[in-house]
Amino acid sequence: MREAYELIKSSHGMVGVHGAALTHLLFLRPGSVFVQVVPVGVGWVANCYGSPAKAMKLEYMEYSIDVEESSLVEKYSRDDLVLKDPVAFSRKDWGVTKKVYLKEQDVRLDVNQFRNHMNKAYEKAKLFMDLNG
After folding, report:
1. Domain presence at residue 117
2. Rounded distance, CA 91 to CA 20, Å?
3. Total domain count for the chain?
4. pLDDT per residue over 3-49, tens digit each?
5. Domain range for residue 98?
6. What residues are paired with 64 via a beta bridge?
7. Which long-range contacts (CB under 8 A, 24 or more apart) does 108-115 make?
């Protein structure tokens, strides 16, 4: 834990896919950039990191993946409610939602699309680096 704290505290930013490990954002310094990659169907719960990040005065950014960046596209038809309307699907049962969107899904970023987002994050981190070293 100490090594994680020291590494993150000395960083200018952190990027991660929505999940429990993002609680490490607590070790970031105010002004650091925090990018949360939000999988399909998880947007409504992503705020559990977004709100604290903003309250901690982090430069918070979200990258919501497209359906094509999700492994669910290989398991379900594009017309399936799972992909077509995750909000409607998630109303059914939290257990099913957790299983499908949080356990079964892998994120496969489109690096070209993600690069644009990361360039913006770098610009924010650069400002922080210039001010705080």
Report:
1. no
2. 22
3. 1
4. 989 999 999 999 999 999 999 999 999 999 999 999 999 888 888 99
5. 2-110
6. 38
7. 108/69, 108/70, 108/71, 109/37, 109/65, 109/69, 110/66, 110/68, 110/69, 113/66, 113/69, 114/63
